[in-house]
Amino acid sequence: MRTTQLLQQPPLGRNSGAMTPDLRTIARTLGGEISGNCVRAPGPGHSRKDRSLAIEIKDHTLLVNTFSPRDDQRACFDYVVKQLGLDMRTNGNGAPAAEQFSKKKIVAEYTYTDQHGGPLYQVLRYEPKDFRQRRSDGNGGWIWTRGEQTALYRWPELVKYPDATVFVCEGEKDADRVASLGHCATTISGGAKWTEECIAPLVGRDVVILEDADDAGRKRASEAAEALSGRANSIRVVRLPGLDGHADSKDVSDWLDADPNRDGDALAEVCLAAPLWARAPRGGLPFLDFSKWDSVPVPQREWAVLDRIPLRQPYLFTGNGAVGRWWS
To answer: Which DSSP state fits 299?
Structure first.
């Protein structure tokens, strides 16, 4: 397995005559696009759709990272420098520039497949923590994007157990951990949307959405619940007790690690005790079209006390002075 290397040059624009380019200039020059705090662009000799290069400017320093195992690290750096027209021969003191190497190591590969087990794309986990997605180019290499297709992680197992409750996790690591306890577990890759291809395998099933204890976890859990509303048989959104949102206590894996007695049965017991999820009512008042009221049947009045106190309507009780009034 090849280790990706990060090539770093000394600061730009400090007595060397080189001006620091901005991300828009880099994206336009290299035919890429801005993604977060970096530019993703084609590597040298790659197709225009390729995004194997990651270029970042940090503290006036050019950082070039290639995720293509076929590309030479130094050649990629030189390519970017040449395309941007930068003079990288000397540092701010006029001394020869020296590259520094900072390694990112692939620690896990998560393969997404179709329902029959045919590979679709992969999610790679790096240390220091980072994620990249790739799919086969059909010639033994990789295209460093997921492409248009999305799928549920561990899809073949969902097909194998069509009646099992499904635990929807926030990431592949957690889905694998829950599956190791004997449950059906899945997730969608980072940045993916809940498309019809992802929803269809969960139609009519009981679903437990495990919410990570942070804002991102709350958002992703809500998105999953909204997408599955009306399609799944039941939905529970569960934040496991004791998670505090810190880096070492945020997800289901952390919850399981915190107590060696916690197993698949303990997880199921906590989750199935949670209330069913229901969509929160939308804000605002409904629009009333008075022009159509003549065609709307008059609702039959309901009574709290027959012919005296209407049900579900404001009502004022009054009394003599000093007795008081009550609202119903």
So the answer is: P
The answer for residues whose C-beta is within 8 angstroms of residue 29's C-beta and 6 or more apart is 21, 83, 84
Task: Please state, as a whole number, how many other Cβ atoms lie within 10 Å of the Cβ of residue 241.
Answer: 7
The 10 Å Cβ neighbour count of residue 105 is: 11
Q: Is pTM, for the whole model, over 0.90?
A: no
Q: Which residues contact 274 (CB under 8 A, 6 or more apart)?
A: 208, 236, 237, 238
> What pLDDT is attached to residue 22?
82
Do 263 and 218 fall into the same domain? Answer: yes
Q: What is the number of helices (H) and of strands (E) in the chain?
A: 8, 17
pLDDT tens digits along 178-205: 999 999 999 999 888 999 999 999 999 9
Helices 73-84 and 23-30 sit at what angle, rounded to 10 degrees?
100
Is residue 291 included in any domain, yes or no?
no
Distance CA 154, CA 117 (A): 9
Tokens 């009034």 identify what position? 325
Residues 31 and 44 in one domain: yes
Q: Which DSSP string do the residues of 179-198 spell out, in sequence order?
A: HTTT-EEE---TT----HHH
Domain boundary among 143, 165, 190: 143
Is the same domain home to 229 and 186? yes
| pLDDT one-digit tens code per residue, 139-164 | 877 777 788 889 999 999 999 999 99
Three-state DSSP state, 26: helix
Number of CB atoms found within 10 A of residue 258's CB: 13
Going by the DSSP 8-state scheme, the letter that residue 262 receives in this structure is -
